[in-house]
Amino acid sequence: MSKLKPNATELTILKLLWKREPRSARDIHDDLESFFSWGYSSTRKTLERMCDKGLLSETKQANKKIYTAEVAKLPTLALYAQEFVKQVLEVDGPVPVAMFSDSRLIDVEELDELEQALNDLEKQQQDKDTN
Prior knowledge:
Blueprint: H1 8-19, E1 23-24, H2 25-32, H3 40-53, E2 56-61, E3 64-69, H4 73-88, H5 111-130
Helix pairs in contact: 2-3, 4-5
């Protein structure tokens, strides 16, 4: 996964795609209306920027642009969780995977993979701190 951390708006779009993809720009926009008060052109521009950043890929089907996430869900969520636990809560040590047990975004079957992603981030941070 790229170390690029999506901003809050981009994360909202990625979460929609992680739940069901691929999706058209119109489909994404329709689901975003409950989160953001913006027009369809703003959704399209945001999707284009996300493609430019490598967060999404775009294909065309007939006259529709179809989007797919290019960043993996679990490493991205692990990055957010690590940042929150370290910077906001000031907790040293690994992020406990148990904090995700009731998540609507993560399936029980994904918890082992998430734990590995969290451990990898912790090891990278330790390596960085010792250099």
